[in-house]
């Protein structure tokens, strides 16, 4: 076992989907890829016109499929699941992924149910939450699901509908004052119905110190301490990072991450010195 073995076992990481550059996002290939690397895939969820919950980030097919011009800008909410299945969601990424289709949530949950050791993030875009909760209940995978959204009220609703599902409120990090305000608002409720808080770490282009992000180190350290005391977890989304940055975050005690480049993340993590 490598020197970092015990640290690696403590880490939980999300394969963030909407800008993943290693596999085509929101496909079964992306799910398998993250699971095979030991991570947790994210599925962005929307609902079709005929009521099927599917995995896709955008409201149209334009960016992630080979749909023709007359179809690519139609709202997902106005199309049937059968119509979505006509178009390839892997080919625009590369020939190796030809044949990948937009998956239904139920298809992904069926795989999850067959592997109780696996987990899945569901990032809410636009779905009937009661229908989502019912599907999760039917497959018996509530303990394997982490529901993610920036709206605290939606997290509360999911916790009422499916108490076994963990809920994660994500907080944008572009404007530190707004980040702090959103976090404090949740804290004032006693973190009602929340299990995890995710903070997006955005690069500070005008930084003069050795700290990379707009959200300050001291704030992150305080949040980590308060969430730990509350029996919760802090997750950070690091779209950009280098070795020093990741090591700084690990030194703060953070053990939950969301990343766009899983292999780069794991290679960097393996160099973290075990104290």
TrEMBL record:
Transmembrane segments annotated in the record for this chain: none
Coiled coil: none
Domain of life according to the entry: Bacteria
A GO MF term: phosphoric diester hydrolase activity
GO BP annotations, alphabetical order: lipid metabolic process
SUPFAM superfamilies per record: PLC-like phosphodiesterases
Pfam families: GDPD (PF03009)
Location of the GP-PDE domain: 11-269
Protein name: Glycerophosphodiester phosphodiesterase family protein
Species classification: Bacteria, Bacillati, Bacillota, Bacilli, Bacillales
């Amino acid at each position: 076992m490598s020197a970092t073995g015990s640290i690696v076992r403590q880490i939980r990481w999300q394969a963030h989907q909407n800008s993943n550059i290693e596999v085509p996002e929101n496909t079964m290939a992306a799910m398998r890829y993250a699971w095979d690397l030991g991570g947790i895939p994210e599925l962005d969820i929307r609902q079709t016109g005929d009521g099927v919950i599917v995995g896709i980030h955008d409201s149209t097919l334009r960016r992630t499929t080979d749909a023709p011009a007359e179809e690519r800008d139609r709202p997902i909410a106005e199309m049937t699941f059968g119509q979505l299945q006509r178009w390839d969601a892997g080919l625009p990424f590369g020939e190796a992924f030809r044949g990948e289709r937009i998956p239904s949530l139920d298809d992904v949950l069926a795989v999850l149910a067959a592997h109780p050791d696996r987990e899945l993030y569901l990032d809410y875009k636009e779905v009937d939450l009661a229908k989502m909760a019912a599907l999760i209940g039917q497959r018996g995978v509530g303990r394997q699901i982490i529901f993610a959204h920036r709206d605290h009220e939606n997290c509360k609703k999911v916790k009422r509908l499916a108490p076994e599902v963990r809920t994660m409120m994500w907080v944008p990090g572009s404007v530190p004052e707004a980040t702090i305000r959103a976090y404090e608002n949740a804290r004032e409720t006693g973190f009602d119905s929340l299990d995890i808080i995710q903070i997006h770490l955005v690069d500070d282009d005008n930084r003069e110190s050795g700290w990379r992000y707009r959200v300050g180190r001291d704030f992150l350290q305080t949040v980590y301490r308060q969430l730990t005391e509350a029996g919760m977890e802090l997750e950070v989304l690091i779209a950009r990072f280098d070795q020093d940055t990741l090591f700084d975050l690990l030194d703060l005690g953070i053990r939950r991450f969301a990343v766009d480049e899983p292999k780069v993340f794991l290679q960097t993590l393996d160099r973290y010195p075990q104290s």
